[in-house]
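Q: Could you fold this chain for me?
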Amino acid sequence: MRILILSLLLLSALTGLGQEKYPLNTFRPPLDIPLVLAGTFGELRSNHFHSGIDIKTQQRQGLPVYAIGNGTVTRIKIGLWGYGKVIYIAHPNGYTSVYGHLQKFSPEIESFIKRVQYEKKSYEVEVFPDYGDIKVLKDQLIAYSGNTGGSSGPHLHFEIRSSISEKPTNPLLYGLEVRDATNPTLVSLFAYPLSKEAQVNRSSKKIQIKFNKQKDGSYLADKVYASGTIGFGVNTYDRQDLAAN
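A: Sure. Below is the predicted structure, expressed as C-alpha cells.
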C-alpha cells in the first residue's frame, strides 16, 4: 500500500478538488520576490484559523506591493492592531484581494488617506471609497510592505476572498507558486476500523502500521488485511524548500 494514495485522498479532501474551479494564471503575485511563506492558509492560530497566507519579505520593510489584477479599491483601514495598514481591492471576476501589515500606501492612496485622517483628526481610520473612485491596474504599485498592526515581524498578509460572501480562499489555488519540491516526512501511520463489523489485521481497534522509507523518498507500508469500512490517519509534516517552517 503506497502512502501516496493516502496523501492524494487527504489533499483532495483539504482543497475541495472538483467542487469549485478557481481562475488560474489570472492574478499575478503581490510581490516581485520568490514567495516564501511564514504562515499558510487555514493555519490554526490562538483563537482563529488563518484566513490568508503570510509572505516573508526577506526580513525587510518597504518592498513594493502590486495589485494582482485590475480592480477598484473598496476599503482602506489603518489601525494599531489587526492588519495595521491594510487595503482591499475588488476585481471584476468576483474576487477581492487583501494586503495587510503595510508600511505605507502608494503616493495616490497615501494622499487620499491622509486627507481622511486630517478630517477625522485620528490616526486610526477606516474608509470605504465609492466603487470606481480609486481604480488600479494589474502590476500597479499600491503600497509598500511593512510590520504594522498585530505583526511580530516584517511580512505581507495576503488574502483572496469572494467579493459577495467575503469567504476567504487559499491564494495558492489561483496559480501563485511557492517553491516546494521537498517531500513530506511521514512520522506515523494508523488504521481505524470504522464500521461495526470492521477489522484491521484481525483487530477491531485502532492499530499502528509500520512503514519504511524508499530510496526514491516515498514510503512503503506493511501489508494491511482488512474487512468492513476502515480509515487511515497520517501524522506528517511538510517543509518548504526555502523555509524551515
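A (continued): Residues 19-174 form a domain with the Glucose Permease (Domain IIA) fold (CATH 2.70.70.10).
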